[in-house]
Amino acid sequence: MRKILTAAGLTTSAVALGVLLAGPAAAWTASSQFDVVFPGQKPQTTYYVENTGANTTSNGNMTGKSVVYWQLGVDQVIDGSKRFTSFKITTRIEERLTKTSEDHVVTKKTCDMTEIVNNHYAWSSDSPENTCVAPSTTYDGELWWSSDATVVYDVEGDGKGAITQELEGTRLVHG
Fold first, then answer.
1. Out of 5-9, 16-20, 117-121, 127-131, least confident range
2. What gap in Å lies between CA 2 and CA 175, rounded to an integer?
3. Inter-residue contact 175 to 28 (CB < 8 Å)
4. What is the distance between the terminal CA atoms of the chain, rounded to a whole angstrom?
5. Quick one: pLDDT at residue 78?
6. I need a labelling partner for 54 at 20 to 30 A (CA). Which of 34, 81, 93, 170 fits?
7. pLDDT of 83-113, one tens digit each?
8. Separation between Cα atoms, residue 143 and residue 131, nearest integer Å
9. Per-residue pLDDT averaged across 40-48, rounded?
């Protein structure tokens, strides 16, 4: 399965590189991963998130999206029970006045992926179900831009409440 996820990541990276080399657009991607340990006999799951920010000079827009992939360990038994009461990702497009100033969120979107992560024990392809896209905004080359995301999840039956995972954002884009 890791090979499948790696292949999916390489495919996504190749698409981003193709956009970069196509001329009028540029894309930047950052990858993160985190493990979720479930109570009882439920298997641990690794979640991978690719955040992509792109500026499309042909239409002057900045876009941001996050794609979530996950897999169980090879030796783990699937018990068919509900794993999350909630699993949401918020994708943001951010701007800064200078390279060192604070981020300002320009647009964002929160996507509820609870049903898909509960109903599928692994997901390794890009599809609308595992992708969260922030509304695009007008790109201004005088500002510094990035895209990032946060996952907030609540594991069924662990008594810990909501857990927040801050994910790696893209590098800053300027000019």
1. 16-20
2. 37
3. no
4. 39
5. 59
6. 34
7. 899 999 999 999 999 999 999 999 999 999 9
8. 26
9. 83
One-letter identity of residue 9: G
Q: What share of the chain is helix, strand, coil (3-state, %, to 5)?
A: 15, 50, 35
Per-residue DSSP letters for 96-164? ESSTTSPPEEEEEEEEE-HHHHHH-S-B-S--GGGEEEEEEEE--TTSEEEEEEEEEEEETTSS--EEE
Q: DSSP assignment, residue 18?
A: H
Decide if pLDDT at 47 tops 50: yes
Q: Which are the contacts of 96, defined by CB distance < 8 A and separation ≥ 6?
A: 102, 103, 104, 143, 144, 145, 146, 172
Q: What is the pLDDT of residue 18?
A: 38
Cα–Cα–Cα angle for 52, 118, 53, rounded to 5 degrees: 5
* 37: its two tokens: 């340990």
Burial of 88 (0-12, 13-18, 19+ CB in 10 A): middle
